[in-house]
Amino acid sequence: MKHLFTFILLFAFGSLQTAESFSAEVKLQELVAADITFDPNLPKPEDITGIKVGERHWYSHEIQRYLDALAEDSPRMVALGEHARSYGGRPLVSYAISSPENLANLEQIKASRSHIIDPASNIDLSAQPAVVHMMYSIHGNEPSGSNATPLVAYYLNAAQDAELEQQLKHVVIIFNPMQNPDGLDRFAHWSNNHRGRNPSSDPNDREHREHTPNGRGNYYGFDLNRDWLAHQFPESRGRLALMHEWKPNVQLDFHEQGSNSHYFFMPGKPERTNPLTPDMNQVLTAKIGEYHAHALDQKGVLYFTQENYDDFFMGKGSTYPDLFGTVGILFEQPSSRGTHQQTINGLLDFPTTIGNQILTSLSSIRAAADLKDELLTYQRDHFLSANTLKGYYLARAEDDPTRLKEFIRVLKGHNIQIQSLTEDITAEGHVFSTQDSIAIPRDQPNAAYLEALWNRPVEFEENVFYDVSTWTLPLAFDLQHTEKAVLKAKTAPLSDDFLTTAHELPTSTIGYLIDWRDSATAALLYDLLDAGANVRAAKSPFRAKTEGGARDFGYGTLFISPELNTTLPERVMALLQDAAARGLPVHAASSSFTSTGIDLGSREFDVLTLPKVLLVTGPGTSGYDTAELWHLLDRVVDMPLTMIDTFRLPSTDLERYTHILLTDPLKAVPGISKKLGAFVQAGGVLWAQGDRTIDWLKQEGITQVIWKETARQTMSSAFQRTVKKDNASTDELERLLPARQAYADADNEAAYRLVRGVILNGDIDITHPLGFGYTDRALPMFRTNNRFMLRSDDPFATPIAYNEQALMSGYMSRENQELAGSSASIIVDSKGKGAVILSLDDPAFRAFWWGSQRVLINSIFFGELL
Fold first, then answer.
1. Would you state the pLDDT for residue 13?
2. Which residues contact 254 (CB under 8 A, 6 or more apart)?
3. What tens digit of pLDDT does each residue of 762-785 get?
4. Three-state DSSP class for 774?
5. Cβ neighbours around 689 below 10 Å, total
């Protein structure tokens, strides 16, 4: 009776949502042994929510409500509480499921996890259970995983089966039912509100075609399965903490794929396994796969392995754990993308997709229980062999403690140990000071992942990648760092106040200087401009006298003079004093006269204005690219922006904005080319990102660019010209034809010519407004396309060009390497009073490319100087 009142209320609402609708559900009894019975004292999913699993898409709060009720009543399950809360305000929760005896000793079992990986410990592995971390639907519009969790949990708790009870004695399950509640709810709302009483199975139906942003991403639209490495979002930080707290032996990652496929489970394509992955990891992956094969064969479910998907990028849920003594397993279920959908394999309905995820959930537990001893031994052996590397990696961010602090936070999230220097070191042409440098020992438990973050691979066994081919973290943060380890260094534990520069700001009658080199100053600048302050930016460097002594200031230094801010002195001073108290580089000037460079009253200071930014979003735009720009300005710069969907642009007055950020061509928007051209001519700044966007702007006559042709395109053009010659000989034609190749290699040959995430060595003009705040001309840029621009014919308008030998890390064909050399990364095309900024690269890639994101920020605040 304890759930009766809840049931009555929820049934009333649930029945309103599902009345006279398509009727379907997952029949659990058909998925498990026919003789299994269930504990009648435990609630079924529909007892709590009034909705059967598979009847429609469940929302995150419904899943949590049921699992909480089940944990309250079951001796096999306890709620572990909230490990994160999304930016959308939704909780991420987890549960422990095991035998009652294990749950009674849960804290002791968790404490023992640290002893298993401690080489000095002599813990008895045979007495320890294996830990399985079960994670569902990190992509919200791949909902079969999360929708399977109510029935998976019900079976594990209510099934009266001796074999299952024995398995639970050997396994502790950390049950993570929804990794992306914001995306899950976005997709559930879409699907539940776009199906009729008679749902359409046509793949073109609205129910199966979400708008942008869709449910795959989180609140901002980011792919959380690419955020394990950088963990820029609360969901990822909480998930990482949960994993490292429990140190699982197996981590399961449930996804969906294209509707016309068959079920996939690991192992992936062998040639695309990261070379740092231990061989035994793949052996155990294959052994576990046999259990999935058996379970799916019993039900006649077709599947495939060792194709398409890989274990290379160490920043996804199924690959990340492979370097921590854990076996990561990826599952990909064909998606119905709604109620049901016609596919080349017949009608695929939502209950079927859920049922398959239940089957492999249960086969995983069976495998972990049977392989418990092997899994625990593998984990222990992994860490026993970890502390063998010698030396230290060194890193610093010159005059930007904010950037280095973020780098430290990322490393600590992976349980990577960091130390400070007690003696300055000169290595690889850089001086690493005790005041602003860190030392990262290679001799540590998580050395394997440290190597994965630091490596710069350029040669690969396989040149086709499911995701990016490189992710070198110190390059992403544009740190001065040692590529190779320094063998000797004097170090000490990293103190809590390392890089802390909080200070009290003295009063100055001259004014206040803000060092633009610190990544936190952009947010301060916006606040000052929003408060109406007169803020000026230096277009030349200088050495100024401050109350703290003489200091060097570079391009982009901000200057706020009391003489020019007489109407808002209290508000402006409050912002400056608060910034100094938070450690930002705000300095009180003691004289307008400088010892070198421009004086503080120089005309080389330009007055800045408050930016008003329009980000083009919605249909026809890339949800990922727009998400990166939104997140950067909203969370890092902490400023508002206006997001306008493409179909509203014709009726929007663009004169209200100073900047337009465009990530995709606007071919379907009538009259927009003329409006964009007028916007730029009148003084607006148009940020155009990506080769497709730039190509469209060129076609529309808004900008000019010359693409560097590939050898293949050149050959094709020459062939066409030769064919048109009246007297072209057969020999002439044959010389221009490519050699024959096997048809089976066609896909791979096309993939070899792609650029799937590489790091190129950019040369940035630090005197250019887009280069303000940089101290080093070398700037690593992340590249994901294979188009290359010639530098501008204006010698001052290519602020970032690649070096002649551009490739720093990742796979790039020889042909593309030659094209990249000395080509342009960013061109500024001045038009009238405004400018078009052509950026082939993505400076805010996945929110962790902290080194280049400053270029985009500079375009926002210094656009007038272009």
1. 37
2. 134, 135, 136, 137, 142, 144, 145, 148, 331, 333, 357, 360, 361
3. 999 999 999 999 999 999 999 999
4. coil
5. 26
Which residue matches tokens 């709590």? 48
Is residue 419 predicted with pLDDT exceeding 80?
A: yes
Q: Closest by alpha carbon to 362, among 106, 169, 168? A: 168
Name every residue whose Cβ is closer than 8 Å to that of residue 837 and which is 6 or more positions away in sequence. Answer: 685, 686, 687, 688, 770, 826, 827, 828, 829, 859, 866
pLDDT tens-place string over residues 64-118? 999 999 999 999 999 999 999 999 999 999 999 999 999 999 999 999 999 999 9
φ/ψ bin of 688: left (φ > 0), alpha (ψ from -120 to 50), beta (otherwise): beta
pLDDT tens profile 302-322: 999 999 998 999 999 999 999
Contact 622, 663 (CB under 8 A): yes
**How far is Cα 773 from Cα 158, in angstroms, rounded to an integer?**
61
Instruction: Read off φ and ψ for residue 636, nearest 5 degrees.
Output: -90, -50
Domains, in order of start, for the chain: 4-104+129-384 (3.40.630.10), 392-493 (no CATH), 511-607 (no CATH), 611-716+751-866 (3.40.50.880)
Angle at 813 between CA 809 and CA 815, to 5 degrees: 125
**Average pLDDT in the 461-473 region?**
86
SS3 category, 707:
strand
Phi-psi label, residue 352: left if phi above 0, alpha if psi -120 to 50, beta otherwise: alpha
Q: What whole-number distance in Å separates Cα of residue 248 and Cα of residue 421?
A: 34
Provide the angle, in degrees to the nearest 10, between the axes of the packed helices 234-246 and 401-413: 40
Dist CA 213 CA 619 (whole Å): 8
Residue given tokens 């062998």 in the structure block: 270
Cα separation, 292 vs 547, whole angstroms: 69
**Which of left, alpha, beta for 701 (phi over 0: left; psi -120 to 50: alpha)?**
left
CA gap 83, 72 in Å, rounded: 19
Peptide bond into 267 cis (omega under 30): yes
Which of 63-72, 197-206, 625-634, 733-742 is predicted least confidently?
A: 733-742
Q: What pLDDT is recorded for position 735?
A: 75
Q: C-alpha angle 249/250/255, rounded to 5°?
A: 160
Residue for token digits 């050149």?
Answer: 714
Within 10 A of 336 (CB to CB), how many other CB atoms are there? 25
| Residue 522: other Cβ atoms inside 10 A | 24
Asked if residue 794 lies in contact with residue 808, where contact means CB atoms within 8 angstroms, the answer is: no
How far does CA 478 lie from the centroid of its chain? 18
Position 490, amino acid = K
Return d(Cα 688, Cα 270) in angstroms, integer.
39
Instruction: Determine which helix (DSSP H) or strand (DSSP E) holds 524, and give its type and residue range.
Output: helix 521-530
CA distances from 801 to 694, 767, 820 (A): 16, 14, 9
Q: Average of pLDDT values for 353-365?
A: 98
Task: Pull the structure tokens for residue 489.
Answer: 């260094």
Contact 43, 70 (CB under 8 A): yes
Listing DSSP states for 90-148 in one string gives -EEEEEEES-HHHHHTHHHHHHHHHHHT-TT----GGGSPEEEEEEE-SSTT-THHHHH
In this structure, are residues 160 and 39 in contact, taking their beta carbons and an 8 Å threshold? yes
Mapping DSSP onto H, E and C, the string for 795-850 reads CCCCCEEEEEEEEEECCCCHHHHHHHCCCEEEEEEEECCEEEEEECCCCCHHHCCC
Which residue in this structure is represented by tokens 């705000």? 586
> Is 581 within 8 Å of 638 (Cβ atoms)?
no
Q: Are 116 and 125 in contact (CB under 8 A)?
A: yes
574 vs 722 pLDDT, higher one: 574
